Amino acid sequence: MPDTDKLPSKVYGWLDERLGLTEIVALAGHKRVPEHKHSFWYYWGGITLFFFIVMCFTGVLLLLYYRPGEEAYESVRMITYEIHFGWLIRSTHSWAANLMVASAFVHMFSTYFMKAYRKPREFLWWSGLGLLSLAMLFGFSGYLLPMDELAFFATKVGLAIPGTIPVVGPWISDLVRGGPEISAYTISRFFALHVVILPALFIPLLMFHLALVQKHGMSIPESEEAKPESERKSIPFFPNFAMKDLAMWLIALNVLALLAAVFPWSLGPAADPLKPAPADIHPEWYFMTSFQILKIFGAWFPGAVGEFLGLASFNLGVVLWAIVPLFDPTSKSGKWGVRATYFGMFMLAAILVTTIWGYAVLPATP
Amino acid sequence: MNYPVWDVPVIGSGLVIAIIAVIHILISHFAIGGGLFLAMTETKALREGRRDWLDRLRKHSKFFLVLTGVYGAMTGVGIWFSIGLANPEGTSTLIHNFVFAWAAEWVVFLVELSLAAAYYYTWGRIPDKTHEKIGWLYAFTSFLTLFIINGILTFKLTPGPEWLALAGTGREAEAFFQAFFNDGFWPSLGLRSLACVSLAGIWSLVFFSRIDRETDGEVKIQLIRWSAKWLLPAFLLMPFFFAWYLLMVPGEHRDLMTLGMSTIGSGAFTQVTRMALITLMTTATIGLVTYFLAWLNPRDFSFGHGVSLLFLALIATAGAEGTREMLRKPFVVSGYLYSNSNRLADVPRKNAEGYLARSPWNPDRGDRPTVRTGERMFQGQCLSCHTVDGYRSMRKLLHGRDGKAIGNILQMLHENAPDSPYRKFMPPLVGTPAEIEALRQYLDILVNGKLTSPIVDPSAKAVPDSVKVDTLAAPAIDTAKKDSAAPAVRDTSRSTAPAAKDSARI
């Protein structure tokens, strides 16, 4: 330890005695992170986490002024147009939500193609998928809360998707909506979901995910695994990797601030259920794939058959995606590894194509 | 509207200037701070006997010479070209007042460029002491270029009462020194000098990051840390100079900055605040990156880190210069010349006799105003800040409004009442009621594809009694019926007044 007479050293010593800081620092220094040409992809989990932290922080600030129920629109109008830097907090929250989902997708595909779902990291893969699903639900529930025209109709479209599930679909939609139509009750339910239920599920699952990362460490791609131990490079987690991770967070923060400042989130006119829906209404970009698949099958097979087939094919893809650690469990079975890679490429292409397609066929807006 | 209009589709002429200017500032401020950096570093190296530094410094001065002498000079001339085309009235005003300052600037600039070349080409060929003196002389002349241009730049926001009292009399040059050493001069000089020193540090970090850490680890550590120190003065003193600068900004302009705290308005209203926030954010990041990556880990400081810093500096510079430019709204020269080239003093006359009355590009000279007049009004008074479909798109801004609503906005802009929400950042719309009605029709067709509300009687003053008002927009309506909105207006103009159209655009 450095000079123990100095105040910082005294404070450190006091804390160390009670919290065991030296052990934690030693542990972090002991842990090593592989360094190779694909190391860049290791940062995306951290970036996703960073955006989540930003959302928690800005979400709490928004809670100070947001009023769910009948006054929802007016309170968001006040946040956007009257309260000092309310627009900035709201824009940051909304942009962070989109960037979080985007970086989670990048993280998911990078771990997929680096085969990080294989033994013994199956639960990392599943917990990650669970977190992404919850993040998308966060996005869906948060989107309605301003209750402007776009939010209202986009939610209406979004809730039509579970409504297509045979037998229980309409019941699920009614339960979420709090009635047959979107109303102040829907906002209350979405609000409870957004600020209580989803965080209560998300945070423990996140802790589980991070604990597993700690336990198993970073996985290395097959190309690195093929190298002899002596040729593999690694750096200490602390301070080297942590410093680089922080630099990435700093970049993420700047991108976020830039987007929030240059493209502040605006607020449309208040929702009016009696008005016809705008022609170009569509869900958020991360739901565009499911939206477009339903549209495609709906066009091929009009009626309930099309809806069912659309939903079935979408869910089949999701299930196959989730169980990939089961049919490609280790690097020993080369055949299944290659198949999994092709499947991953197919899924990536399917998401990109349906999303672009979905936006391309929307009616033009000025 | 005495000059041709420079119509740059999608981005608009203002953004062309902004893009060139931001690159120029990033390089020219390095030319100024870098001069001091070269001189001080050489002096330090000679005094402390660091011969290994001198070798690196020689290579650095080559990079410096090429970057500042070629790209700095080119973009500087680029600014001249673009401001002359985008805002000839404003450029003319500046030239008429500061011709002596600009002449001095060109002389100093030539000396500066010659010294930069001499500095690089005489490394090892003349005694060290003489070479060092050339470095210091270069640093001095490059600072002089900043000193001169700073007076002209700050004049635009704070021209001062002495100059304003003479403005438009032909005797403006009598207030040359008051205009030059205006209220904003010293705080701005302080801010820019600090930016120059910081940019010298950042560019040097980029350059020295390429030193091999394995073979020349020690010299890399020394030079990276030495370069990182150059950012310190800015972080210590900038808040002070910034506060001083803000105190010097006239109250109505300062309000533009605070407006964006509480609202996003319709976006454009609050750009100043948002750009200032970006500058603050990126500047803070530059500080953190420099401390953690350059100061604490100089050996591992990579070229990628350096370029990232430079990129952040680019955004910070763009934000800061954008804020400065936007703060001046709705003027080019505060209290004298509006951003659309109308002089404050000319507004009553133009309202009475017509915006286009003395213009060589009046398409309906001596006749009743038509939609072609509306198009000229748009080109003359709107195009300096707006585009049809791109940056600050007129179609997007007016989307969803019918002809009557457009007319109401134009009326509000024309009246320019003290409580008007547009007054702080938009110039008044000038012209006779007939001209404004012509503009309303032009915009209505542009946005809605056809006239959506009845033609309003403009005023008996503007249209001769013998002419019926309901024929005002006849040519445009006919065409609009056949085609879509944009071609309708353009086709009308092309088919009826090709000469006028061509001559009004570059």
Written account of the structure:
The complex is a heterodimer of chains A (about 375) and B (about 500). With about 375 residues, chain A is mainly α. Chain A has a domain at about 30-275: Up-down Bundle (Cytochrome Bc1 Complex, Chain C), CATH 1.20.810.10. Chain A has 15 helices and two strands. Chain A has a two-stranded antiparallel sheet. The radius of gyration of chain A is 23 Å and the shape is globular. Chain B has about 500 residues and is mostly helical. Chain B folds into two domains: about 10-340; about 350-505, no CATH class. Helices cover about 65% and strands about 0% of the residues of chain B. Chain B has 20 helices and two strands. Chain B has helices at about 10-50, 50-85, 90-120, 130-155, 160-165, 175-180, 185-210, 215-230, 230-250, 250-260, 270-295, 305-325, 345-355, 370-380, 395, 405-415, 435-450, 475-480, 485-495, 500-505, and strands at about 330-335, 335-340. Chain B starts with 11 loop residues before the first helix and ends with a helix. The model of chain B is unreliable at about 460-505 (pLDDT under 50). At the A-B interface, helix 5 and helix 11 of A face helix 11 and helix 12 of B.
